[in-house]
Amino acid sequence: ASLRNALETSSHGIIAEFKRRSPSKGWIKREAKPSDIIPGYRKSGAAALSVLTDEKYFGGTLDDVLAARPLADIPILRKDFTVDEYQLHQACAAGADAVLLIAATLGVNECRHLAAVAHELKLETVLEVHSENELEYVNDNIDIIGVNNRNLGTFITNTANSEYLAPKLPVSITRISESGIKDAQTILRLQLLGFKGFLIGESFMQADNPAQELARLVADIWELYQNPRA
Asked: Is 79 marked active-site?
């Protein structure tokens, strides 16, 4: 399934993330299994899924994508520090639809090469940027640009980063905002700036019932559509 198409055709564009821990918060749901979370995300209306497969920092493995694949018929982004071709073949074999390429961890030529190989494998590519100078990483094989709102030095998140970069992003590439998104007002504000997708993990996973938290946010967005001045 196409992640880009799913976001372009969704009314809210929420990419619901499965993650057990984060570098800044530590363990969030240490014993969580995809079967506990993914079906609920799908039922609550997620446009797509993001599954963390980095073990050291996020407590995930590729098995989480393998487990998630039969549980949902929506696109899956394999989220990891992609640095070699082997990881792309892994993602493809596990059933992922898209992979993450993080500008901060790659050289420009490396990024271009990995994006080309991903396309050969029929995987879509999400280029993650944190700052304006990383826009040089954009190439013909990038399908989506993800603006990370988390400062890599301080781990502080601020959606103002997406607002700042919005006018500088190529208009032809689907854009998503990542990290620090917690409410419907923020999503609507970013939609007005051209963002089609919103990657949300911690605020869902920290909740007692992640799927219920997603359903509440979708309902809040719908309510704002109906009453924009509310």
From this structure: yes
pTM above 0.70, yes or no: yes
Q: Is 76 helix (H, G, I), strand (E, B) or coil?
A: strand
3-class DSSP state for residue 49? strand
Q: How far apart are CA 1 and CA 4, in angstroms?
A: 9
- Catalytic status, residue 19: yes
The single residue of 10, 22, 50, 148 carrying the catalytic annotation is: 148
pLDDT, tens only, 99-146: 999 999 999 999 999 999 999 999 999 999 999 999 999 999 999 999
Backbone angles phi, psi at 140, to 5 degrees: -65, -15
Based on the residue annotation, tell me whether 110 is a catalytic residue of this protein: no
Radius of gyration of the chain (CA): 16
Give me the catalytic one of 128, 134, 163, 202.
128
Distance CA(138)–CA(58), nearest Å, equals 26
Phi, psi of 176, deg, nearest 5: -130, 155
Indicate if 50 belongs to the active site: no
The whole-angstrom separation of Cα 154 and Cα 180 is: 14
Active site (annotated) includes residue 17? yes
